[in-house]
Amino acid sequence: MVSNRYDRGLEKLKEIDGKAGERVIESLKDISPDFARYLIEFPFGDIYSRTGLDLKSREIATVAALVAMGNALPQLKVHINGALNVGCSRTEVIEVIIQMAVYAGFPAALNGMMTAKEVFDERNKRGKSC
Amino acid sequence: MVSNRYDRGLEKLKEIDGKAGERVIESLKDISPDFARYLIEFPFGDIYSRTGLDLKSREIATVAALVAMGNALPQLKVHINGALNVGCSRTEVIEVIIQMAVYAGFPAALNGMMTAKEVFDERNKRGKSC
Amino acid sequence: MVSNRYDRGLEKLKEIDGKAGERVIESLKDISPDFARYLIEFPFGDIYSRTGLDLKSREIATVAALVAMGNALPQLKVHINGALNVGCSRTEVIEVIIQMAVYAGFPAALNGMMTAKEVFDERNKRGKSC
Amino acid sequence: MVSNRYDRGLEKLKEIDGKAGERVIESLKDISPDFARYLIEFPFGDIYSRTGLDLKSREIATVAALVAMGNALPQLKVHINGALNVGCSRTEVIEVIIQMAVYAGFPAALNGMMTAKEVFDERNKRGKSC
Amino acid sequence: MVSNRYDRGLEKLKEIDGKAGERVIESLKDISPDFARYLIEFPFGDIYSRTGLDLKSREIATVAALVAMGNALPQLKVHINGALNVGCSRTEVIEVIIQMAVYAGFPAALNGMMTAKEVFDERNKRGKSC
Amino acid sequence: MVSNRYDRGLEKLKEIDGKAGERVIESLKDISPDFARYLIEFPFGDIYSRTGLDLKSREIATVAALVAMGNALPQLKVHINGALNVGCSRTEVIEVIIQMAVYAGFPAALNGMMTAKEVFDERNKRGKSC
To answer: Can you tell me whether residue B52 is helix, strand or coil?
Structure first.
């Protein structure tokens, strides 16, 4: 029943989100394994696996959107980690967040910044240099 | 009364948005020249003029946010043009829009796609290759 | 069947929105007279009829919210007129809209400004001084 | 290259949206055939094809969400038609829209009502009794 | 001062939300008893008491809207309970939430799913079979 | 490097938000001092320092917008305090929040009300009469 989209998606999820992505999938297993499967197949198996835009730019787009929408802070945390995992510098993440003050207002940017702070602190504790 | 932020912003606005940006500023002149000035000074004079993130990545972030928010189609049109003006390919713009289906749903992505189609058609008429 | 809330609401609606409010109610008559009734009873009969906050401040709150939410431009138009009808100056309306750039971003404020421009132009044509 | 998800999705799309759905897909063909494919495969091939919730309830959920979000009126129009196509009465559609005044405010419900009015008028012209 | 709308609303509130609804009303008593009254009168006394759409479909619409809007998780929790109280199965609730990935994106659906998980766990502890 | 806009903004921030505003700025110092500076310069140095609308009306507009948007509760808390600090009564704050039920729905108003309750409780503990 596991399709190629699933395998490709799982690999991509691990590349981007590492353990955090796996934990999300794990937490869905008992409530809706189908939703867990869609989450791997469509976003990661279909979309993030596409050519045409490099993974770093994809994560910039996602961080921007999640900061702007402002109602998905847990996912923003996962994708700030994701951005750093695929080659964005901390400075680049911060620049994206600052820029969102222009498009979604200062509260959205401020909440995004606080989320970035949390992520950076956790990565510091794990000895990550970026 | 014109600050350095203003001059720097006006230059950056022209670099990104060309005539479209100037038309927006012009349309604000009789209703609120102060707002026109802020629009140049803060987004363009302060933010887009920053180092730390290249202009192409900034436009990817803006296109992503405007597609996701879904209530600013005129500005999205300006920034799809902006993205193409500063070095994004049409393919990259389309990839960003497709990706927003994951974060903001298919209607937001679909409306973004229709806006991109309009922009590409207009640029074709003006003989632009990208 | 017409309650006191209805009569009080209709009077308040006329005070704030004038003809525009009546046209909205009229347009609902054949599709959902019940919704037209709720629209008069709850917002206007219950809320705008309350003491505790003056009508001018109520319209400032509504204009701010509709600019910030950004997905209700027809209603924003009605309430910019409403604000002017109950004693706000054009300057005050513009100040509220500019301020929304801080909380909801420049595109929301810009779209609000264009709506204000439309309203002011129409009022000029009708010979209104404010 | 056409998967089972695609065939199943196309059939489901026709069942729900009729010609309107096909026109959306058609309009995407020259700008992003891949997005057109995803639009068929994931929403219609994967989700609307699921058991566990009847199609009428699915359309009630979609109409509710699109009215509440308020930034996808073209899609709302398609799905009000969809709701009527799969067995909702006009009264039920109107009830869903009225109810959204509670959760997303009166402007969202009012804009939804105007969209329903448009759809009902078009269906009347086409001689549809519901 | 208590109207028929109030009595009818309170009864409907208890039917849908049980103790959770009463707790919300209780928590409003010292800050704004008027708002508590409106909350009973308009949503429950006026809207949920209407004929034309069955209560189960009304809760499906509400769960869909609250998941899609994504900024009202406490109310979503109340209405997932409400949906189950008036006859939706857990499967139906989960289907509505999955479907919102299409219209409001995966983060909104994922946050909705986590809220459902919380509700189901609490109901399990209280020995509820659905 | 500190501009007049900065000094003017810092003074205005203290006038409106008191200690809470300073704490926000402090918390940004190690992650993005530039964003802290923009937050003082543009919202407070440029916008709140403008004439044309009194500070009390500005805070009414901000509270309305933040309640309606619903995704910025920490900032709403700061600005409910701000509204009270610059001359709004608790009653006026509550009226603004109730009114948002009309424009953004009952959940947004309810969450705003719970935030106001928190703020009032804290001010009571600090012996503030309003």
So the answer is: coil
